[in-house]
RNA sequence: CGGGGUGUAGUAUAAUGGUAGUACGCUUGCUUUGGGAGCAUGUAGCCUGAGUUCGAUUCUCAGCACCCCGACCA
């Protein structure tokens, strides 16, 4: 893509209300725009990052046999009333203009909707197990949105649900999902602790959260850096300084960002929607379920928090909006144009800074945007291309082939 | 939802009871091209409403918006 075709511009100054690094850098770079407190637009650059992240998530969910679908953002009152969640205070309710009562909630989770859908398709143990997920905008009436895109009233989430005939089968899938989640975060360049956590208001079970250590995190966790054992403070059986119950390492207290969570649902939703199946012995039994969430937009914010320096963002290659940032310092621009076209031909995601502006501006902008490889063409480099990795000082002279 | 704070140009900011200045951006022209270039030029602003006052961007109150602390947080 030619940089001149982006309608966004970078800024030297962050908005005065941007406190966290992710908000300041993502807004300065033109990745996101804040429309309201906790409500963001994903601008062309930011949307490319969101797509990279969600594609990683899709690959890993597909790999454990889940299938993608899409459910309504308008969730009918009947669904939430069935589980007594119509009144949950994080919800938004909506009605049509001129209508007397709220008929829908803006979806903040979809257990009810999917369970009801599934109840029309599942009748035998032969239909189980299965799992489905969606990537969708969710709405939560956060009393206090904060930290840029880390906590908003509207956010992009992957929510997955699984359906099983037996507890053993559920547990087997639950463990697979843990591994899939670990893969997602690792591929996104994050070091996430799989953390024992509380189940919240609607399940008494122990659940698991995936926590990335960061000062802007809202959760307090106790971790063993040695064997990676971790507990959320809410359910902690250890404290800082204790011996790790698993490996005799020393427990540390950390603040962390929750980037994902998984939890057993038991038969709560199956019971509410009469989702049963006929077992091998002919008995009707309720389906056992699990739920698995990843905040895609929060993940983007977390990556920005972890991967930046004074000059700007330093995207891991796996989620970067482009692979190569091509800068052109020549007068004619023909060499850069040739390189740009050659890279495009090879399928390299390249952003070409074709703007009429100073070299310093282009260099500073490249640092801010944080694209992994910077390729400079100038009179100095002749027919070679100067290649530099973002976040490293090492500069090499190469050719197009080195960028593919 | 409780407490506190802040609203000045596109952005970041300054001053002021007598209608506002700077920087960046943007326009135009010339000169420039390895760390957000130089000179010139033009552009653009006091959140909304009420009150006090001869006069309010400034003081008071209310509203709204945003931020921070706390509570809450599938």
Count of discrete domains:
2
Number of separate strands: 23
Number of helices: 9
Q: What would the principal axes of the Cα set say about the shape?
A: globular
- Give the fraction of residues assigned to helices: 25-40%
Separation of termini?
16 Å
Biggest β-sheet, characterized? 9 strands, mixed
What fold name stands as the CATH topology of the largest domain?
BirA Bifunctional Protein, domain 2
Q: What is the CATH architecture descriptor of the largest domain?
A: 2-Layer Sandwich
CATH superfamily of the largest domain: Bira Bifunctional Protein, Domain 2
Q: Identify the CATH class of the largest domain.
A: Alpha Beta
Mean pLDDT: 94
Q: Proportion of β residues?
A: 25-35%
**Using only CA atoms, what is the Rg?**
24 Å
What structural class results from the helix and strand content?
Answer: alpha+beta
Structural notes for this entry:
With 404 residues, the chain is α+β, with helices and mostly antiparallel strands. It has 2 domains: 3-309, BirA Bifunctional Protein, domain 2, CATH 3.30.930; 322-403, Anticodon-binding domain (Rossmann fold). It contains 9 helices and 23 strands. The protein has helices at 21-28, 44-63, 77-82, 111-119, 167-187, 268-272, 296-306, 334-345, 359-369, and strands at 32-36, 39-42, 67-68, 74-76, 92-94, 104-106, 130-139, 154-164, 192-197, 207-213, 219-223, 230-232, 252-266, 276-278, 284-286, 288-295, 308-309, 312-313, 324-328, 350-353, 373-377, 385-389, 395-398. The strands form 6 sheets. Strands 3, 7, 8, 9, 10, 11, 12, 13 and 16 form a 9-stranded mixed β-sheet that branches. The protein starts with 20 loop residues before the first helix and ends in a 6-residue tail after the last strand. It binds one RNA strand of 74 nucleotides through residues 9-17, 19, 34, 36-37, 85, 88-90, 108-109, 111, 140, 142-144, 146, 151, 159, 199-203, 207, 218, 261, 263, 291, 293, 311, 327, 329-331, 357-365, 367-368, 376, 378-380, 386.
């Amino acid at each position: 893509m030619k940089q001149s075709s982006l309608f966004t511009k970078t800024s030297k100054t962050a908005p005065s209300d941007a406190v966290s690094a992710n908000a300041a850098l993502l807004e300065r770079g033109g990745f996101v725009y804040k429309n309201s407190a906790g409500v963001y637009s994903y601008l062309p650059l930011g949307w490319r990052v969101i797509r990279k992240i969600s594609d990683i998530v899709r690959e890993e969910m597909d790999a454990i046999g889940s299938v993608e679908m899409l459910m309504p953002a308008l969730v009918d009152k009947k669904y939430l009333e069935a589980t007594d969640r119509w009144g949950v205070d994080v919800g938004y309710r909506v009605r049509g203009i001129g209508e007397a009562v709220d008929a829908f909630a803006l979806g903040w989770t979809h257990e009810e909707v999917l369970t009801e859908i599934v109840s029309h398709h599942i009748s035998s143990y032969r239909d189980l197990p299965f799992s489905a997920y969606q990537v969708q905008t969710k709405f939560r009436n956060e009393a206090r949105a904060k930290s840029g895109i880390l906590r908003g009233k509207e956010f992009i989430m992957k929510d997955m649900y699984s359906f099983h005939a037996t507890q053993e089968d559920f547990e087997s899938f639950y463990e697979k999902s843990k591994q899939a989640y670990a893969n997602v975060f690792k591929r996104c360049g994050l070091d996430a602790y799989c953390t024992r956590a509380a189940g919240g208001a609607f399940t008494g079970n122990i659940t698991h959260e995936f926590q990335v250590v960061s000062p802007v995190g809202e959760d307090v966790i106790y971790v063993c850096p040695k064997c990676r054992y971790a507990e959320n403070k809410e359910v902690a059986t250890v404290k800082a300084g204790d011996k790790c119950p698993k490996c005799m390492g020393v427990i540390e207290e950390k603040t962390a960002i929750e980037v994902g969570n998984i939890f057993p649902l038991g038969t709560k939703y199956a019971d509410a929607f009469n989702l049963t199946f006929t077992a091998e012995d002919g008995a009707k039994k309720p389906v056992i379920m699990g739920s698995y969430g990843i905040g895609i937009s929060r993940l983007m914010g977390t990556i920005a928090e972890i991967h930046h320096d004074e000059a700007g963002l330093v995207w891991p290659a796996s989620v970067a909006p482009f692979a190569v940032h091509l800068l052109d310092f020549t007068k004619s621009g023909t060499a850069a144009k040739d390189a740009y076209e050659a890279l495009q031909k090879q399928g390299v995601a390249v952003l070409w800074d074709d703007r009429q502006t100073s070299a310093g501006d282009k260099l500073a902008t490249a640092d801010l945007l944080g694209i992994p490889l910077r390729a400079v063409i100038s009179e100095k480099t002749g027919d070679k291309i100067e290649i530099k990795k973002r976040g490293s000082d090492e500069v090499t002279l190469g050719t197009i082939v080195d960028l593919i």
